[in-house]
Amino acid sequence: MFGLVLLVGVAVVFVTGLLSYAAYNPDLGNDTTPDKGLLGFYLFDWPTHPAWLYRLTQGVHVTLGVALIPVLLAKLWSVIPKLFDWPPVRSPAQALERLSLLLLVGGAIFEFVTGLLNIQVFYVFPGSFYSLHFYGAWVFIAAFVAHVVLRLGRMTSALRSRGLRDELRTDLAHTRPEPPDPDGLVPAEPAAPTMTRRGAVALVGAGSLALLAVTAGQSLGGWARYTALLAPRNRNPGTGPNGFQINKTAAAVGVTAADVGAAWRLVVRGGDRELRLTREQVLELPRHTAALPIACVEGWSTEDQHWSGVRLADLAALVGLPDAANVLVESVQKTGSFRSVVLRDNQIRDPRSLLALHVNGAELSLDHGYPARIIVPANPGVHNTKWVAGLTFRA
């Protein structure tokens, strides 16, 4: 049963993880994951419709991944004897099986641990989390698929051998050990059981439900946000127009009031044209509004915020590139990752894609990106660059 849950759950987590990397547009240079070749075969132009797409896919990825941890631990506990087989290698075939088991168990532990550390904002990685998690996922899924192929028949026959309802009705007095198996997972002389099978399922299920209850609220929003005890960001970010979650503060990335004060200029480039605009000049450009959420790779998201600013498409037209292929967005932030990102042509053309100047009827706060920030539908949060200083549209 644990294997069946992991079979479905891991598949969903893997697919939503791949979608997250596609959303990061790595082939535009936005992170260090591979952009072409064997592992980048599936990359596609991430859409801007619906606006909540990334909020959904990344929310599922993180929430389901966390909820699967008790199931993974129970599954690993059930195969502990195989991890300590001695002698470790008895034949070439057994050596191959041990290698696949090492990749499977090691890959599972690596992916779940690095993912959990990342969403809890513990940046302890010896390199880019994105590359490590991406390559680790492919190693793990290769071993996972091989294991499924080898064990699917065994799992199917085991599930068919007894009725689930009968097992859940069996009390401790009538619980019997498993019969001897060819894989040596069952002890030769098992001790009397101390827990029923329904108890084991209930224990693991309760653990998963508990983690689900203290995680899902960060993606669902509303009243559920207060239940997200494991949320990496503040569950109560304050009140007022700027009272919603913040990924990184201005102080954390070295942005000061002087950087965004009277001397600040928005530099808009395209072809051989360059404009240097004060904030007052930007405010004089045609203004538009959009109701869009912010969704982070860490799994949290906001409800729709009401943004007001200048369309990216209008800024592209100002420098003579209404059909720009992409735009390089640069921030004044001095430290940290994603000081610059590249947005695709479909993201530029979407009428809801803005250089935002106001949110919920008020000026952006410094922590939310004053004097100007990017907001694009279905875009990962770190690509909605704050404290924007330059936009370079390219043909």
UniProtKB/TrEMBL annotation:
Q: Where are the transmembrane segments?
A: 60-80, 101-126, 132-152
Q: Which InterPro entries match?
A: OxRdtase_Mopterin-bd_dom, OxRdtase_Mopterin-bd_sf
Domain Oxidoreductase molybdopterin-binding: residue ranges: 262-394
Q: Name one Pfam family in it.
A: Oxidored_molyb
Which named protein is this? Molybdopterin-dependent oxidoreductase
User: What keywords tag this UniProt record?
Assistant: Membrane, Transmembrane, Transmembrane helix
Q: Where in this protein does the record put region Disordered?
A: 170-191
Q: Where is the composition biased (Basic and acidic residues)?
A: 170-179
Q: Which organism is it from?
A: Dactylosporangium darangshiense
